[in-house]
Amino acid sequence: EGERIGTVHIRASLAQLNERLLQFVFLVLFMVSMAGIVAYLLAIKLQSIISKPILELATVAKQISINADYTPRLPLGSNDEIGTLNLAFNNMLEQIYKRQLARDEATQALSERERDLVVTLNSIGDAVIVTDINGLVTRMNPVAEQLTGWSFEDARDKPLKTIFPILNASTREPIENPVEKVALAGETVFLSNHTTLIAKDGTERQIADSAAPIRSEDDNILGVILVFNDVTEQYHLREAAAKSKRDLQAIMDNSPTVIHVKDIHGYFTFINQQFDKLLNIERRDIIGKTLHDIFPQDVADSLQHNDNIVISTGQSLEAEECISLEDGLHTYASIKFPLFNEENDVYAVCSISTDITERRQQEEQLRRSQKMDALGKLTGGIAHDYNNLLGIIKGYAELLNEQLAHDPALEKYAGIIEHAAERGTKLTRKLLAFTRHKSSDASDLDINELLIEQRLMLEKTLTARITLNLDLADKLWPAWLDSGDMEDAIINMSINASHAINGNGQLTFRTRNEQLDETDAQALHLTAGDYIQLSITDTGMGMDQVTKDKIFDPFFSTKGEQGTGLGLSQVYGFVKRSGGEIKVYSEPGHGSHFVFYFPRNNKTSMTTPVKTAHTEKQNLRGTETLLVVDDEIALVELARDILSTQGYRVLTAIDGEQALSILKKEKVDLIFSDVIMPRMDGYQLAARVQEHYPDIKIQLASGFSDSIHSHMTDTDLHLNLLHKPYKSETLLIHIRNLLDADTTREKADVYANKEKDTQQTLAGKNILIMDDETDVQVLLSLNLEKLGCNIICANNGDEAIRHYQQSLTSASAIDIVILDIHIPGSLSGIEVAAEIRSLNKKVRIIVTSGDSSAPEMTSFQHYGFDTALEKNFNRNKIKQVLEEVLRP
After folding, report:
1. pLDDT tens profile 754-768
2. What structural domains does the chain harbor?
3. What is the pTM assigned to this prediction?
């Protein structure tokens, strides 16, 4: 339990223990010494065993390092760690050796490919430059070196834009770096056909170029290959060809003929400017189109048929082709010929066409004129003899009337004879109208007054089913016309219109003053100047082109046996001999529109025609000596009887020679002579008499028309010509007035006073036209441009307002706005006018319409317009309206 119970004392001797300990220590020391010796011996052995393999390993490693020879191997004598290490080292050397062999083979193959690539690049005829992704040059072939002027050694690793500077040949502006374009697009790009390369020495070459990306196996862009070649020669050839084409186009454009080329499929490949003008279509809208895209089916088929003949036969073809254009039917003389390729196959058809419309019209006018002249010569010859017979019948019938005044029954018979002779006289006048070149009884005539006077008669002629309208101009100019011929023309036109109108209809006579400039006059075959325009419009059945071409031919009639065919031919003859022109506009189902142009009479007559109007105060008797000359004995006797009954002393002769013989013996106051006589006609006799007997008065008579006497230069004789058959009273008045006239009357030229131009000039005015019809825009623009105006066109209200707003902020403010009433879009003409008026209260706005009776036209101010303009495209009317609206 831990309780101390005593002490034990042990005593022993240490000597023996120390001895044993000392022995033990010596033993230990011996053993340690032996162990050290053994260890040393073992260390020496181990050192020999370990260091040798390591030394061998170091030797092999050094050999490999120095010689790069991987063939040596370490010995594998033991299975210890050194043996394992040597085995691993030998395996490593084997792998390295195989890799070295593979790398050597790859390097050799790569070298071969490199050599092949160099050979290939150097063998390519095109220039090649290769760059990396940054645009630095990595390869060039000799052609590239030659074109750029850079050697590969100098160009290596330089930016492409330094080695390859390129410009646009036309603009001389730098072109974007192809490498950048390829990098951006990721695909092949091509330079334009007009690229210029600037070589290192400054030489310029035209090149064709393409650049493509170089991609890795994972589709990444590694660089760019640029391939180009020298196309300078081709460029110059192409430029020369382009210049030749431009020159050819210019030559063709300035040709007066219409020229075009179509391929064998009918598509247009070339046209000249005349073709543009012909169709009023832009060239770009025609090229690539066919005839059927441009013309109506029937016209296109006809034209294409001629082309097909040329293509199938390979031969040229001449033909006349008719085309309906905006201003009517045109006739073209065309020559078509094939174009052959290198294989001698037809690849296109060229057509050269000349507009012969005017020539055909002139030929038609000449043909008509020749026909009428031939007819006139025939009827003139008959009428002359017929007039002589009528003169005899008529004259003696008048004498019978005077002698039989006491016997009413016989006097009645004589009156019937005289009336029949008068009818015969009117008939011969109509026949003689074909040969007259001037109106024999022409005088100052107011066509307005004539129409007003004839209105009642015309209304009766037209009957109640046809409404007669007269639209007469104020202050119409006078014309120098035969009032009788004018009346006949008006009646003929009215009768024809009544026959053309089925059922109810309208006939409108309209007069205007017209000033024709050189261009307008030439189109009408007139000379420039002032004209009175008379238009006659009916709502009848209209006419086709064939009928229009023949309506003025003598004896042509659309009424069959009911018509004589002389009505319109007489009208035509009257207009022509009056120095005027007549135009016809008509289409089947749309009525007919005849427009007459008569020259304004702005001169007074140089002579005073003998008055023939009867006056009871005039004394027709006389005692003078008269000489009657006529180869028709009956007419000589008739004239002698008429004149002698009035107290005159009458001598007679049957020809000019006999008359001159009488003058040598007798004192004669007046000679009354026929014109047409054998050996010496009346004019020749008059010339001899005026030369040798200047105091003798001369009165000529003829049964022929004025054309026979056109060579007569004495105006007095010509104007005072008495036409057979004549009344006794007419003969007596002519003779008395001529005897009483002052023979020393002075002849002087009287010139018409030119009107002073008080109209406000329109030159430089800016005019906005709003109309959805292109034809209206063009016609208005042409007329306004000829007046010196500047034109802006709009197709609808929004466009018109925009144009006007823009003008307010520019230096060219719009002076006048011409608006159509009805236009497509959200705004009407009235609304557009109101909007423009809100922008400028002082602007002048004109409403225009083809319906002159529209309320906007008749009450234009009520609708916000300043005035109204009818769509008749009359330049003088347009000018008048514009000048009126511009007045303050």
Report:
1. 333 433 468 888 999
2. 124-237 (3.30.450.20), 255-355 (3.30.450.20), 442-599 (3.30.565.10), 625-740 (3.40.50.2300), 766-886 (3.40.50.2300)
3. 0.36
